Amino acid sequence: MPEGNVVALRPNDRVRQDAEPIASLYRNLGTASAEQVVTRALGELALTMAGMARQVRDHDLADLSRQLRRLQRMSENLGMISLAQVSQAVRDCLEQAEPTAFSAVWARLLRVAESSLASEGDFLDSAPQDR
Questions:
Q1: Would you say residue 3 lies in a domain?
Q2: Residue 109: pLDDT band by 50, 70, 90 thresholds?
Q3: The 3-state secondary structure of the chain, one letter per residue
Q4: Average confidence (pLDDT) over 55-61
Q5: 113-120 long-range CB contacts below 8 Å, 24 or more apart?
Q6: pLDDT over 60 at 128, yes or no
Q7: Residue 1 belongs to some domain of the structure
Q8: What pLDDT, on the 0 to 100 scale, is given for residue 63?
Q9: What is the mean pLDDT of the segment spanning 9-37?
Q10: Domain of 120?
Q11: How far apart are alpha carbons 41 and 124 in whole angstroms?
Q12: For 10, 33, 84, 99, which has the most beta carbons within 10 A of its beta carbon?
């Protein structure tokens, strides 16, 4: 195949979210408390992702499955459907010792996590404010 036929792929993952878990927090806790809880949870999620990225970069996969399960639970609690599903898919690849599949699905997890965290920030910005 001639070099001129190289196509750059730009994956565009559709991120699915369920607003109900966060809306329920706002209804049950009130705006100020819910915002604190959600902000703290999103921070934990971001730290978990950063820690896992460091582990993968360092090829230290010893407890990565446990961290992925933790990420999946946090994502489910926040209504981040896609992030929870892709976390499970990465665990499956890891447990089946499929390095090529792991690399591809890990890259997808990074994209979905970035999109999910950006979407949640947008949701918080549009939440009702106590003023």
A1: no
A2: very high
A3: CCHHHCCCCCCCCCCCCCCHHHHHHHHHHCHHHHHHHHHHHHHHHHHHHHHHHHHHHCCCCCCHHHHHHHHHHHHHHCCCHHHHHHHHHHHHHHHCCCHHHHHHHHHHHHHHHHHHHHHHHHHHHHCCCCC
A4: 93
A5: 113/45, 113/49, 113/83, 115/13, 115/15, 115/82, 116/15, 116/17, 116/75, 116/80, 116/82, 116/83, 117/42, 117/45, 117/46, 119/15, 119/17, 120/17, 120/22, 120/38, 120/42, 120/78, 120/80
A6: no
A7: no
A8: 92
A9: 85
A10: 28-125
A11: 12
A12: 84
- Structurally, the chain folds into a number of domains equal to 1
Q: Quick check: is 91 in a domain?
A: yes
Q: Are 59 and 100 in contact (CB under 8 A)?
A: no
For the CA atoms of the chain, what is the radius of gyration? 17
Please, which residues have CB within 8 angstroms of residue 6's CB and are 6 or more apart in sequence? none
Helix axes 20-29, 31-57, angle to 10 degrees: 140
